[in-house]
Amino acid sequence: MSYYFTLNYPKNLKPCSVSDLLKTLLIPRKWRHYLRSDQKVLINGCYRSVNQLVYPNDKIELTLDRVESRQSNYPSSSNLPDIIYEDANLLVINKPAGQKTHPNQGETNTALNDCATYLGRSPYIVHRLDMLTSGLLLVAKNPAVVPILNRELTTKIFQREYLATVAHADKLAGTGSIRQPLGHDPHDQRKRMVQPDGLAAVTHYHIIRYMPDNTALVKLTLETGRTHQIRVHLASLGSPIVGDPLYNSEFQQGEFLHLTAYRMSFIKPFSFDKVQVELPNAKRRF
């Protein structure tokens, strides 16, 4: 299948070579090779070699004919997602707490199954949210944008912010960073724990407001994206998230995890346009 993208080189940028342009757009090396060899990079309607310059206001056209994806198909769930943002290539949905991001074999009730219902075809996974975590989930409509979004994740262009209600808020400073490596809990395969020889993990937090019951609403940003990172890091300081069945010893049946992905920002693939998406009324939900 062929994928076509067009954009104008921004007025505020200096001229650059076609080669540097393709790198700036985070296009994978293999695809850059195909764009050159197939002459599918057009500037103002004409092919230009990789060393020629692109100038402000130039029209850029890219056609990708060799996009492959090994991702499995996601069947329809017959349920529609809660869409917060949409463009030609992307969806951002509000995933409810308790729903998985993607299915295991035979499941059809996950967030990506809902997206398949809406799109009428299988979507493409970009990142995940824990089943108990609610909030913003970015989903790709086609495989051409997935490698670029993956690069945005690894280079921290793609930013995510979370809100959580924590217990024992007096144990947290107003603002801080948690730098504790994480690994598997050998006693419970569901859990992670702080381990000196674990994977590096960094969480930044800022208390938005304190509540009379010694809880607090906290904003969190991640430098890394380890499984259960926010939950384990906060619990390691003695301030676990309210409603956390794995890491809060005071959890009571019927509670929900007070953790939501409420804001994200990214560059739209094959463009220079920054997008910020925020969950409506997120700070009022807790």
Into which percentage range does the β-strand content fall?
Answer: 25-35%
User: What is the CATH superfamily of the largest domain?
Assistant: Pseudouridine synthase
SS-based structural class?
alpha+beta
Number of domains: 3
- Supply the CATH architecture of the largest domain: 2-Layer Sandwich
- Fraction of residues in helix: 10-25%
Question: How many helical elements?
Answer: 5
Global mean pLDDT? 94
CATH topology of the largest domain: Pseudouridine synthase
Note the gap between the termini.
45 Å
SSE string, helix = H, strand = E?
A: EEHHEEEEEEHEEHEEEEEEHEE
Query: Could you list the spans in which at least 5 consecutive residues all have pLDDT below 50?
Result: none
User: How would a crystallographer describe the biggest sheet?
Assistant: 10 strands, mixed
Number of strands: 18
Task: Calculate Rg over CA atoms.
Answer: 21 Å
Principal-axis shape? elongated
The CATH class name of the largest domain reads: Alpha Beta
Provide a descriptive summary of the structure in words.
This protein is an alpha+beta fold and 286 residues long. It has 3 domains: 3-64, RNA-binding S4 domain (Structural Genomics Hypothetical 15.5 Kd Protein In mrcA-pckA Intergenic Region, Chain A, Roll), CATH 3.10.290.10; 70-155, 2-Layer Sandwich (Pseudouridine synthase); 160-261, Pseudouridine synthase (2-Layer Sandwich). It contains 5 helices and 18 strands. The chain has helices at residues 18-24, 29-37, 111-119, 146-154, 229-236, and strands at 3-8, 16-17, 41-43, 46-47, 53-54, 59-64, 83-86, 90-95, 124-125, 134-140, 159-166, 175-179, 182-184, 192-194, 202-210, 216-222, 259-267, 274-278. Strands 7, 8, 9, 10, 11, 12, 15, 16, 17 and 18 form a 10-stranded mixed sheet that branches. The protein has a 4-stranded antiparallel sheet with strand order 1-6-3-4. Strands 2-5 form a two-stranded antiparallel ribbon. The chain is elongated and about 65 Å long. The chain starts with a strand and ends in an 8-residue tail after the last strand.
